[in-house]
Each structure stands twice: as C-alpha cells, then as structure tokens.
Amino acid sequence: MHNGTTITQFIIEDQRRIEKATGDFTSLLNDIVTACKVISNLVNHGALVGVLGAAGTENVQGEDQKKLDVISNEVFLKSNEWAGHLAAMASEEMEDIYAIPKQYPRGKYLLVFDPLDGSSNIDVNVSVGTIFSILRCPEECKSPTAADFMQAGTEQVCAGYALYGPSSMMVLTTGNGVNGFTLDQNVGEFVLTHPHMTIPEDCQEFAINASNMRFWEKPLKRYVDECLAGKEGPREKDFNMRWIASMVAEVHRILTRGGVFMYPLDSKMKSKGLGGKLRLMYEASPMSLIVEQAGGMSSTGRERILDIKPTGLHQRVPVILGSRNEILRIDDYHR
Ligand code: AHM
Ligand code: MG
User: Fold this and answer.
1) CATH assignment of 205-334, among 3.40.50.11240, 3.40.50.720, 3.40.190.80, 3.10.620.30
2) Rounded distance, CA 145 to CA 142, Å?
3) For the segment 263-305, what is each residue's pLDDT rounded down to a tens digit?
4) Atom 17 in ligand 1: which residue has the minimum CA distance?
5) Phi and psi angles of residue 57, each rounded to the nearest 5 degrees, phi first
6) What's the CATH number of domain 7-194, 3.40.720.10, 3.40.350.10, 3.30.540.10, 3.30.360.10?
7) Which of 159, 71, 78 is nearest to 113 (CA)?
8) Which residues form ligand 1's pocket by a CB distance below 6 Å?
C-alpha cells in the first residue's frame, strides 16, 4: 500500500503555483492519465482480451497497424474529446487532425500523441509506450487546422510518456524538471516514485539499430566506430550497447542511468525522400523536451530538435539524444 503523492495531487499542487490557472490544464492531464491507465490495462492483459496481432490496416505512413495501435488511438480520442479542454488532436495513426465533435465544447489546447509507440514489440511481450505533447492553440482556435499545430517543440506546454513495462510508469514535464510516477495497479493511481529525474552528463552506453550501419552518414559511423573500439580506441573506455526498438523504453533507460539514443538519417531513408525514421511532432519533440528538462541534449546532429518548426503533421527527423557530453561530441563530428 502506497502513501505517496499521486499524480493527480502532484498536478493540482503544481497548478496552485500558477497565478490565474483555471484548472483546465490539470483536468486535461487527468484525462490523459486515464487514457494511459486504460491502455496499460489492455497491454497487461494482452492475449487474454484478444488485443494482440495485426489490425489488417495501414496508417498514413504506410506502416502495418497492430490491433493495439488502433485501439489505443481510439482510447485517446474518446478520453480526451468530451471535457472541453481541447480544440483538436493529432495522432501518428491518423492522416489529418481530429476536430472535437460538435456536441462537445472546445478548449484552448491541442493534444498530439503517438498512442502506442514501439508497437512491433507488442506481440513479443516487450515494453511499449504512449508519447504525448500539449500545445496552446494559437488565436481563438474556432476551427483549428493542421497549421495551428505547426509549432516548434519549445512551444510545448507539457510533454510526457507512459511506459508499459514490468511496471507501468508515467513520466512528465511541464517545463519545470521531469518527474516519474509508477502505477499502483491495486489502487489505480500513478504515484510519484522518481522525483527530479536527471540524465548523467557522461555515459558508456549507446542505442542504435546497427543493421542500418551500411547506410549511415560518416559522422555517425565515426561515433559508433569509436565507441566500439573501446578501451583501446580514441575514447579509451568500453561502451555497452542496447536496442529495444521501443523509443519510450530507450528514453526511460537514458533518464534512469544515462546513455545515447540514435535514429539517424541514412541513405536508405534519403532515397525514399524521408527526413528520418521518427516523427517530429509525435516522438522527437516531446521526448526532446523531456530529455532537455532532465539535463540531457537532443539534436538531429545538425540542429536542436526543439527549435524545428514542423512543416507537416507527419514530418520525420533524425533523432540523437541523451547524455550531454556525448551529444555535444556527435554534433561536433557533424560539423
Ligand atoms: P512506431 O511508432 O511505428 O512504433 O515506430 C517508432 C519505433 C521507435 O519506438 C523505435 O525507436 C523505432 O521505431 C524502432 O525502429 P526499428 O524497427 O528500425 O528498430
Ligand atoms: Mg511511434
């Protein structure tokens, strides 16, 4: 039995510090938390509730959807459409923005999410997660369009992820540090267990899908080669390597013990006209805010990810994030 701070209590206490706060944001976050608890429950029950396997459909990016991709997307829409805090939503799984249905009031925020990231891991029972970001709707937002979502990552009011692993966790930033909460399944509440998460400046661990090595650009290849050379190489220390293929799990590891995560641009993507593998709005921007708030850095190798103003809802970018001194080094190699 826990007697710690619940996420609801934490958010309300945070809100009290803001003069003229209406409670709208607090209430929106509560709905997001509820959606994540529902998804956590589905992920936990897996085959018992028939949610594993392919949906038999493709998303806007031409990727095969899993049943849980589709269900999680629906859970997010339904949990967040009714309360009157949002003007619109955008999801990795939907081609266009989702306007709030006419029967509900509209609010001043925009919600952006990847409902189930790392979904190739679902059927093999490995950690997956949800990533979300909250923006303010510019102007009055009477009839929001995709253009209203084209805001640099620095404009985010809040970013967070839920990790569905051995335990379910929620990690949040509202621009004032990063805090982690663990779901107490019996009580049904996320409880503050990881206050003030910080990323060590140095590390000896990196994560990359090495099967793409032959397509990488020179600076990236140099960095990884030097890590692999270990004690005998220019870095004069051994590095460990991990690849979970689940960005949420990967970022969570980095928040816990440091490290570097890389999904760089490579020649294979370039030949398909793609700017990277990961999506700026649903993955790169929210994770970059969390990482920076925890003292880490996030870059494409050539620019700070949070400074990029999106040009399209499904724009992709290279992502290199984690321990500060390693990212500075990788940026330097790119120069
Ligand atoms: P998804 O949103 O379709 O799940 O794709 C994003 C995921 C990331 O979580 C992960 O870092 C990457 O794709 C894994 O890619 P790969 O299949 O090349 O290992
Ligand atoms: Mg994703």
Assistant:
1) 3.40.190.80
2) 10
3) 999 999 999 999 999 999 999 999 999 999 999 999 999 999 9
4) 245
5) -125, 170
6) 3.30.540.10
7) 159
8) 63, 92, 114, 117-120, 209, 245-247, 263
